[in-house]
Write a structure and sequence with these properties.
single chain, disordered N terminus, 122 residues, Arc Repressor Mutant, subunit A
Amino acid sequence: MRHTQSISESPTTAQAAAGLSSETDESGFLLDSALWNAAFAHASASAEGVVLTQEHWEIIGFVQQYFAEFHMTPPMRLLSKAVTAKLGAEKGSSLYLYQLFPGGPAKQACKFAGLPKPVSCI
């Protein structure tokens, strides 16, 4: 897993590059998840210094499936429990999830997945 810092690229720049700047809120979350695509995920992640790997995509896909099934984005504690139940204890551990999403696993995974911000995230 590789994380890089990008000072010059803001979420607004990333979303503009993905063609979605007018379709996001002030925090960079898509207003309509139907507009989500992989380019948006890559651009949003890049703007936050994250290079998406297969491990990221596994969690992004998981939160998208979770949202489709339960019509809500999971807060961190619930995300960890649900990932543990479906993908195993190693992948559901807070340490693993924070290594992938250092800006907050629930918040960043949902943002990169084109989903609403989890209610418990600030």
